[in-house]
Amino acid sequence: MSYSKKIDDGEKVRLKDLDPGYTAGLSKAEAEAETAELLKELADLDNLLYASAKNSLLIVLQGLDTSGKDGTIRHLAKGINLLSCRVVPFKAPTAREMAQDFLWRIHQHTPPKGNVALFNRSHYEDVLVVRVHDLVPKEEWSRRYDHINNFESLLADSGTIILKFFLHISKKEQKKRLIERETEPDKGWKLEAADWKERQFWDDYTEAFEDAFRRCSSKRAPWFVIPADNKWFRDLAVTERIVKTLRDHRKDWEKALEDRGVKAHREIAEYRAAHPDDS
Ligand code: AMP
Ligand code: MG
User: Fold this and answer.
1) Which of 88, 126, 166, 237 lies in disulfide reach of 3, CB 3.0 to 4.6 Å?
2) What pLDDT score was predicted for residue 279?
3) What is the spatial distance between Cα 87 and Cα 59, in angstroms, rounded to a whole number?
4) In the sheet where 160-168 sits, what is the strand order?
5) pLDDT band at 10 (very low <50, low <70, confident <90, very high)
6) Per-residue pLDDT averaged across 193-198, rounded?
7) C-alpha to C-alpha distances, 110 to 46, 184, 220, nearest whole angstrom
8) Is the separation of the CB atoms in 105 and 93 below 8 Å?
9) What angle do the packed helices 231-247 and 28-52 form, to 10 degrees?
10) Which atom of ligand 1 is the closest one to the Cα of 91?
11) 220 by DSSP, 3-state: which?
12) Rounded CA gap, 39 and 76, in Å?
């Protein structure tokens, strides 16, 4: 059983059929207890990922304004070692970035082996906001799905584990969160009139997301729809998917560590044998 919807290769998903308020019948306390256990396992698996340095982990977070991308990153930071993790936010491209292909600015931030990258928005903006607002002609953005698939295949071929999360909130919950930002003094810094304007394009974004899921979900770079109206359930659902995915690598990573240890011991023994007088 899983707490989020995995999208299979070519699968057509209707977001309106997936409940943003889904909680699998769990109470907040139950979900938090399970999340705490999963976070411990995540920390352990992340250590192995780092020490074995065979794979890297790329987590892509997408979702409409207020869907909880920042909050999810703050949550994951509790289970991931900051020494080997980078958070990368993608804003509107600069003039320099716009003078290159759309993946140029992305590729330089993909994680090296042993490392984790958390993308707050991503190359998917180039088939989302760009499509919704006609920022480039259709013939240009429509070719990007294939480029994205090829790019993600390249990353996977070089050992990158890719997980893409869509934080699914309801229109009602978004309104609540936007108003909260206006009424709570410590949330004022997040206020943007643009968020209310973007809300008018809700249906266009939904369509753009649904197309991206159908065209760019694959076995090695799957999309997951995360029920995100409840922050505590969102955190559980995201953590669960990451831990379940990394678990499959545990044996492989432990073996790599063992091999490294054996090799280091052998090298030290050889050194000692060759330098018997070294105190
Ligand atoms: P925020 O996530 O609130 O910091 O906002 C970042 C903004 O950058 C959002 O409005 C995104 O739509 C915008 N953005 C990110 N990537 C792109 C892109 N490739 N083209 C245009 N706008 C983008
Ligand atoms: Mg914003």
Assistant:
1) 237
2) 66
3) 10
4) 5-7, 223-227, 160-168, 56-62, 116-120, 85-89
5) very high
6) 93
7) 17, 36, 15
8) yes
9) 40
10) 8
11) coil
12) 8
Nearest CA to ligand 1 atom 14: 92
Residues in Cβ contact with 132 at an 8 Å cutoff, skipping those fewer than 6 apart: 201, 204, 205, 208
Residues in contact with ligand 1 by the CB-under-6-Å rule are: 90-93, 121, 125-126, 129-130, 135
CA nearest neighbour of 216 among 168, 171, 166, 158 = 166
Q: Which ligand is nearest to the CA of 91?
A: 1
Question: What number of residues does the chain have?
Answer: 279
Of all protein residues, whose CA lies closest to atom 6 belonging to ligand 1? 91
**In whole angstroms, how far apart are CA 189 and each of 71, 90, 126?**
15, 18, 26
| 200 class by beta-carbon count within 10 Å (0-12 exposed, 13-18 middle, 19+ buried) | exposed
C-beta separation of 226 from 165 below 8 A: yes
Mutation test of ligand 1: which of 65, 69, 72, 90 has the most ligand atoms closer than 8 Å to its C-beta? 90
User: Residue 126 and residue 100: Cα distance in Å, rounded?
Assistant: 13
With contact defined as beta carbons under 8 Å apart, do 60 and 124 qualify?
yes
Give the model's pLDDT for residue 225: 98
The whole-chain average pLDDT of the chain stands at: 97
Which residue is associated with the tokens 């990258």?
117
